[in-house]
Amino acid sequence: MKYSEETHEPSEWPEAMTMVIDDHDLELLELLFVRAAWSLQIPGEAPSAAGNVPVGSSSAPGADRDKLASRWASEWAAAVQEAPVERNVERWHDKYGWSGIDHDAFEAWVFDQRSESRALPALEDSPETAVTSELVGAWERGLRKVTVLPIDGGWTATRGAEELLLGADVRANRDEYSTALGRFGQ
After folding, report:
1. Is residue 3 pLDDT above 70, yes or no?
2. Neighbouring C-beta atoms of residue 19, cutoff 10 Å
């Protein structure tokens, strides 16, 4: 989904403003699925996928669980630290293979996560419309993209200089979304 001054009341959006709302970051979705599929316990603030993730026949390969958790935490930290420069970024399965991951279950879960965005709400009902002034302020501080992930618990992070990562629950809650946008670039 891409919002611009053509899709909103022009008087409220700066003429040059565009904002990309992305709910299909496959690198991060794949990492969330792997964590859920293998029940990895990760210390620190790395989030988990929201709800019950149908993992199919996925199960952790015979490797040491602490080693898998450490590898996952490293991959997550790298993925959220800096936005990928190229479109086809190397994902978990590119580095470690599909062993232990039910590919069909992963694809079905990703499809389910995107079902809400495929049925685009009327613009006046979008979360961005409810926080227009905060969104404009964040855009003025460099925000160009909001990546929405199926994560609960109020999780947010900044990736690079132009991207805000957040859980779908944050985007759905006007006060939390407003706060996250207000913190961007501060």
Report:
1. no
2. 20
